[in-house]
């Protein structure tokens, strides 16, 4: 279950790939929402699915962070230069912060708009009262974080490809099944 000195274990890999799928899904759903007319059922459904995917991401990220800090990190072989390690740690920290801040800002944005937020069949308690000014601020924050997330994903995937194809180290294979 846990990480070994050669590979991320099944738990870390499952948390990573399910989060990746949900994050890409949440972004695709909200993009697709824009293709449909305001007030249409399809638009409402896509928005609802976006929120459900976002809520699941928060549910996965909390245990993921706990798991991250209680498991050994499998070292990369051959070892990359220290500046790359430093940059990767910084990127991963920003990722975790965004994975928490995005769903939280999404929920608060809806509540500031005066909407009840139903996540996974449960109505969340109202954490804040309706407030149009705050809603506008949270909307901008959510949009900014969403765009930052897209940029982070592009950089992250590019880094994974460079490690695999150019540096020819095991950064990517550590995150894939089957290395033992
Ligand atoms: C990691 C999870 C999430 C990601 C990556 C994400 C990302 C995004 C992105 C990229 C947009 C489009 C912003 C724009 O350009 O207008 C957006 C919009 C939106 N998100 Fe999220 N989001 C997440 C979670 C949530 C959650 C949990 C909720 C609410 C419960 C939520 C509610 C909304 C709403 C209502 C909009 C539309 C805002 C509008 O009216 O334009 N999001 N989100
Ligand atoms: C799309 C959303 C994604 C998110 C939010 C995400 C997030 C993360 C985070 C936070 C880590 C750090 C793990 C740690 O704490 O050590 C990580 C590691 C990793 N991710 Fe992703 N990831 C995504 C997609 C992908 C994709 C598509 C690939 C493959 C092309 C990928 C490949 C990797 C690899 C190889 C690692 C290990 C890196 C290392 O140990 O330095 N990720 N990812």
Could you give the topology of this structure?
Elements (H helix, E strand, L loop, with lengths): L9 H24 L7 H30 L11 H31 L5 E2 L2 E2 L8 H35 L14
Antiparallel strand pairs: 1-2
Helix pairs in contact: 1-2, 2-3, 3-4
The structure holds protoporphyrin IX containing FE (2 copies).
Question: Could you characterize what this model shows?
Answer:
This protein has 180 residues and is mostly helical. Helix content is 67%, strand content 2%. It contains 4 helices and 2 strands; from the N terminus they run αααββα. A two-stranded antiparallel ribbon has the order 1-2. A hairpin with a 2-residue loop joins β1 and β2. It is elongated. The mean pLDDT is 96.
* Cofactors and ligands: protoporphyrin IX containing FE
Cα-to-Cα separation, first versus last residue:
11 Å
Number of domains: 1
Percent of sequence in beta strands? under 5%
Query: What's the CATH class label?
Result: Mainly Alpha
Tally of DSSP helical segments: 4
Shape: elongated
For the biggest β-sheet, the strand order reads 1-2
Rounded radius of gyration (Å): 18 Å
Per the CATH scheme, the topology name is Fumarate Reductase Cytochrome B subunit
Task: Please name the fourth-level CATH homologous superfamily.
Answer: Transmembrane di-heme cytochromes, Chain C
The helix/strand class is mainly alpha
Q: Unreliable segments (pLDDT under 50, ≥5 consecutive)? A: none
Largest sheet: 2 strands, antiparallel
State the total count of DSSP E strands.
2
Specify the CATH architecture: Up-down Bundle
Order of helix and strand elements from N to C terminus: HHHEEH
Portion of residues within helices: 55-70%
């Amino acid at each position: 279950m846990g990480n070994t000195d050669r590979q991320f274990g099944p738990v870390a890999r499952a948390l990573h790939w399910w989060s990746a799928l949900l994050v890409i899904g949440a972004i695709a759903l909200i993009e697709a929402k824009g293709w449909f007319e305001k007030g249409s059922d399809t638009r409402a459904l896509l928005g609802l699915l976006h929120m459900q995917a976002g809520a699941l991401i928060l549910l996965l990220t909390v245990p993921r962070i706990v798991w991250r800090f209680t498991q050994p990190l499998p070292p990369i072989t051959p070892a990359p230069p220290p500046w790359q390690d430093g940059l990767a740690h910084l990127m991963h920290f920003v990722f975790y912060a965004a994975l928490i801040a995005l769903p939280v800002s999404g929920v608060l944005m809806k509540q500031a708009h005066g909407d009840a937020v139903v996540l996974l069949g449960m109505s969340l308690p109202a954490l804040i009262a309706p407030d149009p000014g705050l809603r506008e601020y949270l909307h901008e924050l959510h949009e900014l974080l969403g765009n930052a997330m897209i940029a982070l994903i592009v950089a992250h995937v590019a880094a994974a490809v460079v490690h695999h194809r150019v540096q020819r180290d095991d950064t990517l294979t550590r995150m894939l099944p089957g290395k033992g």
